[in-house]
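Collaborator request, handled under Task 6.
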Amino acid sequence: MPQTIIGGRVEGGPHSLIYDYYAGVAHSLLPVMERLGLAADRDVDGLADRLRAEAVASNACIMPPPLVGAWAQMLP
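Structure tokens returned to the collaborator:
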């Protein structure tokens, strides 16, 4: 029977790396977003700073997508 586990971080504050993570995701998706007409804000270079300022001002915690693992053992 397969075993699974899920884990995730919850973080915030002025020194968290989560803002850079989300800005990096947005930067990598920007070409597709532009092609689909979904890129209302193209200033991804300043996105991490804007996210940080908003989160710190509202004392927010941010949870990135959780990591899921699964494994199984094959029996002879």
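The cover message to the collaborator said: "The chain has a mean pLDDT of 90. The two ends are 14 Å apart (CA to CA). Please let us know whether this matches your experimental observations."
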